[in-house]
Structures are given as structure tokens and as C-alpha cells.
Amino acid sequence: MKIKNILTTFVSAIALLLSTSVVSFAKVVGDKIVLGAAISLTGKYSSNGVHTQNGYNMAVDRINSMGGIKVGGKTYKFDIIYYDDESNPKRAAQLAERLISQDKVEFMLGPYSSGLTKAIAPVTEKYGVPMVEANGASRSLFTKGYKYLFAVLAPANLYLDVAIRTAVELNGGKGVRIAQAFEQDAFSQDVRLGILDAAKDTGSEIIIDDKLPKELNDMAATLVKVKQMKPDVLVVSGHTKGALTAIRQISEMKVDVPMLAMTHCDAAKLSKQHGKNSQYALCASQWHKTLTYKDDFFKDGMTYDADFTKEFGYAPPYQAAESSAALLVFKDAFERANSFDQKKVRDALADTNMQTFYGNIKFAPGGQNIDKPMVLFQVMCDGGKCENKVVAPLKWASADLIHPIPSWSKR
Description:
There is one protein chain. With 411 residues, the chain is an alpha/beta fold. The protein folds into 2 domains: 3-153 and 290-362, 3-Layer(aba) Sandwich (Rossmann fold), CATH 3.40.50.2300; 158-285 and 374-410, Response regulator (Rossmann fold), CATH 3.40.50. The protein has helices spanning 3-18, 46-65, 89-102, 114-127, 161-170, 186-202, 220-229, 239-253, 265-268, 270-274, 301-312, 318-337, 342-350; strands spanning 28-29, 32-39, 69-71, 74-84, 108-109, 131-133, 149-151, 177-182, 205-211, 233-237, 259-263, 282-285, 294-295, 299-300, 353-356, 359-362, 375-382, 385-392. A 7-stranded mixed sheet has the order 9-8-10-11-12-17-18, sandwiched between helices. A 4-stranded mixed sheet has the order 1-2-4-3, sandwiched between helices. Strand 17 and strand 18 form a beta hairpin. Helix 5 packs parallel to helix 6 (186-202) and helix 12 crosses helix 13. The termini are far apart.
């Protein structure tokens, strides 16, 4: 779905709102199931907001072109109303209210980020609006008792757990010394809690526990400590901008550390931005194109990667893939419910047990996906070409982990 389609949707929405027809702009308009979404198209999350929107649009086009959604003996197509939440939680909550109260949308797709999902979830819950979200991983989202929130991705506390456990395994089962720096948002703080849990479980020690600056543009203070204290692992979580800042300053300051593990590496396109300076970084990912999950719409990860790249001009980060999976979940739930009744659709979502190209999806009572692990890929470069290769868990590894990272003097 390109800009033309989005504009068409917007114009259609205005026309329907102004219409005196007895058909209201609600859950179904003619042969369309209308979903609402507040997305970060501007502000600090705009890069990943665009990935989210592109993933949604990719799935809408694919599902619609392959027969749509069959409910009550009729065939329907998906349509989405988008508003820009400006990467602002207060604005996101206001837009959720607008979509539900004014636009009469009865089914929602999630925004980008845990913080914005936290802002919207109380609104959708209040109105009994089922929301399938793909980019809010904070575990606190799943401890509130929400009944209408469903997340296709693994929770945030599991993002880099595997990195610590892998480092300990490589250290002969002995605990390691960990340095960490985190953004002060809900997602990154949950990643931090996961590291604390992993450290406790493995007998590891946190020797640096820093906060990233609000603008995510300078982590030199942390890196000076890393050079002095020589940890075994450096963990960084600051979304796209934080990942780019980390690689830039680690290379500028020639910081040597045996293992560097981060979030949002693929969304940041590290190798495109920083070339060989990004080599050896370990990146937590919800998905990778080489994984062997399959479905009838996108076939597998390699096919999705090729189709997405052809459509949007860049390889899909996991934020796009999981967003596409959210539409597959909604289609499956509508068809199993065989209804547009919100309670019936909600119950069908709760009973989801399916495989998509993105991974297995099964929801716990809290709404989190309990059937899909995280993976770690490592940036590996050969000549002038860099690739992301899965190195953990070993079950899906497509390459051997390079550890320890060679020092800058030997690169």
C-alpha cells in the first residue's frame, strides 16, 4: 500500500464521516474491515514507525489480493486509518480516543514502541476494542490484566537474555562482568531487568549500570568506564538512534570489549551507516529472514524479505515483519470467530495458535506471545559487504559466533 492508497483511505474516511448514509464508519464499511492505527511518522521513533506502517501495508495488500477475509459467507478486505502520534504518548492516547469515539473504529493495530502502546492500551481496554500490537514488548504491558491486548512479539525482558547466557557458556559456565547503558523508556528498562535476571541466574556481575542521555546522542562517559574497567560484555539499548550512537563512538574511541550486544541493530541499518565499524556487533532480533517458519501468505522469511525489498526499496527489519504478522493474526481470528462482534473476536484472538513466516504465535492470558523465542544475529563483513547472520539460539544458527571481538588494533 503506497502513499496513494493511504491518501485514498484518508479521503474516504472524511467522506464517510460527512455522509448522511445510515452506514456508519465503524467496524465494517461495505466490504471493508476498517482497522485504526496511531503510528510514529514524526518524532524520535519515526524510522521504526515507518517500518511498522510498511509492514502493516504489506500484509493488507497481500491478504486483500489473496482472497481477503471470509466472515459469515462473505468476503471482506482490510483497510487502515492512520494518524501520526508524533512519538508522543499523550498524543497517541488522544488519537486512540479519536479513532474509537469519532471514527468508530472497533479493532486496532498497535503503535510503535512500548511507551506508546502503554499509552493506548488503557483506552482500547476501556472501550473493549481488541488490539493486536507488534511493537510493544515491555513486560509490564502483560501484567495489567488487559483482556483486549495481544502482542505477537516476545516480551522485552527476553531480548538480550540469550547474549548473557551465551557469554557465560563461552566462559566455561562461569559468570561474566557486564557493562550496560539504557535509554529511560519502558522498553529499554525492561531489557535491563532481563539482564539483571540473567546476571543473577548465571552468577555474573554488573560493573557498569548507566543511563543513556535523553537525546541518545552521546555515550562517551560510559565508554570511558568500559575502557578502564574492561567488562566481558557491553549491553546497549536505545532504539535506533542509540544503536547508531554506540557504534559511532565505540569506533571513534577504539573501545575494545569481547562482546557487544544491542537492540535495534537491524532497524538502524548499522552496516549501511557505519560499514566495517559495525562488524561483530550482536543484535537482538524478533525475526530473521533465514528462520524456517512458514505460512500461506508470505511463504517464508526469504520470500518476505525479497517481496518487501521490491515493494519498499530496503530489506525489512523485524519491526516490519512482526507488523505484517499482526494482520495475519487478525485475519485468522475474524475467520475463526466468524463474526465482527468484538467479544467474539477477542475470544478468538485469545485462542490463537498458529505459525506465520515471522514465527509461532500463541498468547498467554496476559496477551504476550509465549511461543516464539528471540534470536541473536551478528554483523559479519567480507570485503566491502556486511551481512547479518543468526548465531543464537544454536537451533537456528546459520553461522558460528565470532568471540571474542578482535581488538581495534588487529582489525
